[in-house]
Amino acid sequence: MIVAIRHILKHSIRARLIAMTGAIVVAVVCLLTCVMALLGASSLRQESDAQLAQSLGQSAALLGNFIEVRESALDQWAVHPLVDAMFGDPEVAGIFVPNLHNFFGKIRAQEPWLSQVFLIQDQQVLYSDDQRFEFSRDGNGVAAGLALIARLPARGASVLDLRRLRAGPSQQVLLLKRPVFKDGRPLPGASVVLLLDFAQIQQKLFGQIRIGHSGFISIAASDLSGKVVLPAQPDLGGSERGDFRQASAAWRSWSDIPERYGSIVFRRQHLDGTPFAIVGVASRDDIRASVLRLVALSAALGLLALLFGVCCAIYFAGRLTGPILTLTLKAEQLARYHAGEVDAATPSGRMPKLDGLDRHDELGRLAHSFARLQAAIHDKIALIENQNQLLTTQDAQTQELNQSLERKVQERTGQLQQALLAQQAFGEQLQEKNRELDRLSITDRLTGLCNRLRLDQVLDDEIKRYQRCGTPFALVLLDVDHFKRVNDTFGHQAGDIVLAEMADLLATGTRALDVVGRWGGEEFLLVCRDTELDGAALLAGKLREQIAGHLFRVGGGKTCSFGVTSVAPGDTLAQMIARADRALYRSKAGGRDRVELEGGPDGAEKAAEKAVAAAASAAPAGAAGPAQPAGRVPA
């Protein structure tokens, strides 16, 4: 067969022309097909990488916003009045447990990833929204889970296995912790702890996201030991599931995550300042299938182009060599005619005519054939340009789609930022109202001075400070003389006016260091910090003179009786109040408008009495020395 083909090619210009033209068409079509397939495969891979990178960026932003919202909500819970009440009086705290259950129950209905909420103080659970949860204990009976939580930072997010907190099956959880503030200061050992189900976060945020046909997005995190952990993954088909499980089982650190493993491709993006990362998993079979479809399409188009080219080669070779063959036959007839040979085409012996050639010379026919060949090449170029234009249009559509997605992401980010700002503004308003409630809770409404509750707190703090540092302080208990006459004569509103003026005199006549408060009825209490008995006695004498020399708006002049005492070793609050009350009683019994002392050794009392007598003789009534005003409600 090869010999026959060689013979035909050797003796036929048309065969050689057809073979040459067919070989050129085959080479061009194969080259164009390979180039188109390679360019298409590269474009598909780039598009797949861009889609994976975009999915990672969007998923990282989504997870970051999720964590920020949870931390902001936890900050608000830490200052919530119900939470604050749980860290107050233990006998009263039990009243608020049903309210806390309702509060967190509503939140749990909206957030299925909420696993547990604890209020903990000094490694003791004050509240748990799931009473069945029991912390594990070591051999000594110590709650190891609570000790682990106590060692964690006061703020921030951590990922750990729930088995480190209680006995039971393994479950990865996200732990958020916040300190509890009371009176604007962190309460020692007190915190709010929130446990979020890692698998629920994965399912709700990224369970419906797919990359291609079999790819997906997964959260990864570094736990307390530095090991990379993953939540439960969606059920994958084919070989992807097995490859992912085999690959993730060997992960101990972030450097263990490969770029490719088996039939899947990995990409990851870390969240700054957190132990989290977003891992994108794409199936190589998805990319390979798209590339194979493109190659098959290119091969089909190449085969059609090849058949079309061969047909065109045969047709144009015939048109090109036809006139030459005709001329050759005419020339052979003419040669046989001149040789005297009998020719079947000219049996009469007449000279054959070269008819059909006088209207088309050889150059004209060649020019005509070249024009046809040029038209065929032009058609192929137009086909290639159309394909290039189609690819350019697809690229433009892809770019427009990417821009649209970026705009949507920006709009969503703006909405989330606005919502976050609104939530922050609400939190600030709530904090301001809480501060106002705190101020009102320690203020006497009538006089603007400290109320009994605030005085008890100050006295308790001063007793502790004396026991700890030996810092002295004194108490001045005073009572308005004959105050009942004011109420009986002028009415209770007039009595309120007298009490308010008396509060102003006491506030302006004491130091900023001292605390002035209404003890009850017409009685007032002064807590003189860093003051011995003689200093407090001197201050009481000056205040007595100022009050006696003041002309009140209702009832004219008024006087007060004073009882003064100072702290002594082993004193309790009740003992100090009792001494001050006894001294006040002696002042009343001794004729009122007096200063009586009790407390400490006899020598201290006598020295203080001499200081009072000296001050009384040195300054006339109503001309007390200058004093700095004390605040109505100390901070």
UniProtKB/TrEMBL annotation:
Q: Would you say which domain of life the source belongs to?
A: Bacteria
Q: Which reaction does it catalyse?
A: 2 GTP = 3',3'-c-di-GMP + 2 diphosphate
Decide whether keyword Protease is in the record: no
What name does the UniProt record give this protein? diguanylate cyclase
- Which keywords, in A-to-Z order, does the entry hold? Membrane, Transmembrane, Transmembrane helix
Q: Which SMART domains does the record associate with it? A: GGDEF, HAMP
Q: Which GO terms describe its biological process?
A: signal transduction
Q: Name the top EC class.
A: transferase
Organism annotation: Rugamonas rubra
One GO cellular-component annotation of the UniProt record comes to:
membrane
Domain GGDEF spans what residues? 471-600
